[in-house]
Amino acid sequence: MRLQQKLLLAIMPTALACIAGLGLWANHQANESSLDTVDKYLSGVLKAFISQNLEPQEALLQEHGLASIPSFVEAYQAEAAPLIERIHLPWPGHVFILTGDGHVVRYSDGQPSLHVNWDWSPILRDMAEQDLSHLHGAVTINSHEAFFRIEYFKPWDWFVIAHVDMGEITRISGSIRTGTLLVALGCALLLILAMTYLTRRFVVAPVQALSRASRAIATQGTVSGIPVRTRDELGQLARDLEQTLSIIEEGRRNLKEQVRKRTQDLADANERLEQEVAQRR
Prior knowledge:
Blueprint: H1 3-63, H2 70-80, E1 93-99, E2 104-107, H3 114-117, H4 121-130, E3 134-141, E4 144-153, E5 158-165, H5 166-220, H6 233-280
Antiparallel strand pairs: 1-2, 1-5, 3-4, 4-5
């Protein structure tokens, strides 16, 4: 197995595990984000309805001292309640008004649905006991799960309720999850390509250069240079090897010079010896 493959096999599991963890976290965040978005939207719609329609009517009752007269209160309520029909949700759902005892005041779509007729009294009672001005959560009504938001208008003891089919929220979060998955896969592919390139350039290529230099030294006894100039352990190894080769080359030159000198000395000695023999004759 080649070095690059070994490095990738060592690094990739950790990298892919990190990406998988990021994907799971993003998946969880998608669900939470979808619910949070729907809740904020419903909260804004209900609060706007109360502030623009119910509170002004109550202010008129208080201003004219009519808040204690039931007939006037009912008349103002009857004027304000139909305005809930102007609320349109971007998802399948309903908006309606219940009194504290569970009586239906008004609903937005003309006909009461199963969600309106469902027994909301336990939730409303809990809100009253805990003195909550708003509440959100999920309920299961006739095997259908719904996300709801309730805003309480205390002067009239009205609970303004909006709910959305949870299946629609799941569809929205599913779209986000699909997008997240595609992004995660794209990131994984880019990571693999980047790691392949980086390991080849900064690890495999220097090691291959050192390997070629070692083979050249083994076959030729020398090498012109090692093209590794990184500031890491491989670069230091290349410089150390070049320094070692320089010392060896210097020793080789010195040895050649010594051999040359001794050969010359031997030649001179032979020449003198021949001259002495010739003179003796």
